Amino acid sequence: MPRINSFAELEKLREEIKTKRDPNKPCISVSSGTCGRASGSESVYEGLQSQLEAQALKGEIDLKRTGCLGFCERAPLVMIYPEETYYTKVKPEDAAEIVQSVKEKKIIERLLYSDPVTGEKIVRESDIPFYKNQQRIVSGPNRWIDPKNIGDYLYIGGYSALSKVLSQMTPDQVLGEIKKADLRGRGGGGFPAGRKWEETKNALGEPKYVIVNCDEGDPGAYMDRSLMEGNPHSVIEGLVIGAYAIGSHEGFVYVRQEYPLAVENLNVALEQAEEYGFLGENILGSGFNFHVKVHRGAGSFVSGESSALMTAIEGKAGEPRMKYVHMSQRGYKEKPSCLNNVETWAAVPFIINKGSDWFNSIGTEGSKGTKIFSLVGKVNNTGLVEVPMGMTLRQIIYDIGGGIPKGRKFKGVQTGGPSGGIISERYLDTPIDFDELTKIGSMMGSGGMIVMDEDTCMVDMARYFINFCCEESCGKCIPCREGLRVLSGILTDICEGEGKEEELQTLERIAEVMKDASLCALGATAANPVLTTLRYFRDEYEAHIKDKRCPAKVCKNLITYYIDPEKCQACMICLRNCPTGAIQGGKNLVHWIEQEKCIKCGICYQVCPERFDAVEKLSGEPVPAPVPGREVVRKKE
Amino acid sequence: MEKLISLEIDGKEVKAREGMTVLEAAKEAGIEIPTLCYHEKLEPYGACRICSVEVERGGRTQVVASCGYPVEEGMKIKTRSERIDQIRKTIIELIAPSLSDGGVVGKVRELADEYGADTSVFMSTFKATPTRCILCGQCVRYCSEVVAANAIGFVGRGVERRVVFLPERASRFCPTCRECYEVCPTGKIAAETDGSIFPEFSIDDFLSGKM
Amino acid sequence: MIGISGIVSKIVDKYQEDRGMLIQILLDVQSGLGWLPKEVLTEVGKQLGVPLTRVYQVATYYKVFSLAPRGRHLVRVCMGTACQVRGSPLIRDRVQQLLGIEPGETSSDMKFSFETVNCLGCCAMGPMMTVDDGYHGHLTIPDVEEALEKYK
Fold this sequence. Notes:
B: globular, C: alpha+beta, 2 domains, 5-stranded mixed beta sheet, 5 strands, elongated
């Protein structure tokens, strides 16, 4: 493919691609993001490929891999176009039947999504409640695009925003549009992107740099991975547009190496973009030059902080530095640098194409547009969801997420990653945007939304986040490093039943100093999970301290596994699976646990058949003495 | 002619040159702000946070590290306040358990007394081995920025961050230099190395999990 | 056979001796050798003109780097929040029990290295573990033994 040298040539190429494609030609697409692959989508793809060959249908039915469709819980997912028939949990052995059915224009009932409540089978993707209540803008194209094929991106209008910008707009007009759109950074604090661009543009010093943050270290969030894997060109296009507005000719993408597929697809996309003339010298014949380098992150959460990230791409240990002068003034190599995350850059082409008024029509007063959340944890429909800002937590968790599995009770939802907080039930009707989440002690972060039910211990969660930061912080400044160390010590004591009541105040005192005096935002917010759980779930702390009881029955030191002799059917399953031989009893003899041998690994609890439900966890109550040698009382079936 | 900036520190009118930090401006005006990681020959580092002060700008008060914060026209600084004293006191209390080996002595002791810090308050929740090091990094930065020997450096991260010697470089430079002995605020270096032998204080000790 | 210096110089050349690429160079070396021996770090420092203190700082700062040889199979248990909520600590404990090593260690027969990782981004499929390039999602505690059996 020769380079595209003008805007007209781009449109000509697009027309050519369109004429060559028949929108009515059947196409089987396999969702092949990391989640899909982890569930076996590659074997499904290969199965379909060999079936198309075997049934001699290669010319009549297209087959392709796309990025993540969001409904990762049900992967591997297969979509049949143009009907948008949606199959879930597809297996390689379904391939023959799928190919056959596409040929005969039939539907395979058993692979359809069935509504867990009504049992109704749903054919089309967009009719499934998980998708119906979403507004997929930035994540939308994932379902149509083979990320390794730039033609797919061009077919749906890709790089038209770049072309528009370079042919019809001045850098100031582009900047004005982004400012008017009020696009806020989707990676953390929600700083207005337009202001960041403007500050970088106006800063003294050359060259200026633009940077994509695909470090996404927030545990529980993976929308950036999904976009980078599924639609890397949209990120590149956004970046080039930003570079043009700012007056930058060199950019970086910092991407976690823990995301191998994202790295791979990004590199392929950069090569293609360069080959087609969307990157490099004289882009689309406009005279504008821009080059991009890829840096892989080597496993460090704090390196996603802007000053730390810039230090990392200088080839150093990615630890934050004092930011009293903004990165937009002195960032990478002390030069003006503009950093935004993947989702933010990917939103740019949409704003340019559809206009800031359109963007402003979506969302809330202070937070415009849509946001992608990773809806995970104890929720029925886990996956990535994109909704307008301002939707309530309840709508997201119940209408889209389908509520809490196994009839358990909702307890809380964690947003904002280790810098965020855990929000309790009474805020379920809070409309979600940057400002509202901050008001209730949490934050948007990059959009992780981890749902917790009554089996989640909030003290244990607070300890989890603190220990996460103990490992993932840089350790440079004292308030954060030593503060985290002491918080971890106190929380561990509490989880182990050794906590003291006055330590709850100590937790708050340290949290306050960390917030005021830490070097970077990670340290300043690291205590948020402790503060929010203390605020909303204080009774759980008190139960651990005063009653030596873990209400969620999670903290190992405070629980005992127990087999209810009335329920036990002596099926031998737990007895055989126990790794330490702690379970006694036998055939026809009620099983019981020799507590001295029990290591609380939880296997018996998980393997006990649901219909017996005999293994229990006890906390804060006496464990009834076992009755060795008792014969089983068979349940009537 | 450098531009002069007027600011107020603890109610006192102070003139400073553009590009100076709040700490430098205060020092010139004879106002002392405590530090643990600051060294006049080294780049500002901002790790100990003992030099935190309150800055008031446009009605908003913010805590900043004075060693790195540039002076601005019309800014109002408070070097002591209830909030600042609480920060300094807590910082000393937080580092005290790491120092329990050699005892809280020298500069840290002085600060503990000044701010009423209880140096044993976090002993029971400190679940690590005392290192006698507060990671102020003065030795590392001095060795790199001033001596250019690069014989001592940081390793690890988070609560596992440490300072270690690289024996192959140290054996070349340290016996005749030993300047880091002077900058170390806890006395660890002088106590634990003679410039050629490093008991559990070298990269190999770190990698073998001894420290 | 090319020695350490040859391996390093090939990769250093690929990045045009750019010091800013130190992390990328170490990543590439490690993906070839499986870990970062001391001689490699010294050689990288020498060829790039970067102080050895900085090379060590970088190599011990980022979690991916291993300064000790790794076993034939790398087992990683995801400790991201979503996996945590769905019980990953019990999965970690089970792996630890079955392999007889703690996170960060390698078994004495050099068969397995065991690590925990702070989010693999497969949050919808937790709890999640990877063995080499293979993903094992929706794990229950009893599943762990079966999953590891294949690699024994």
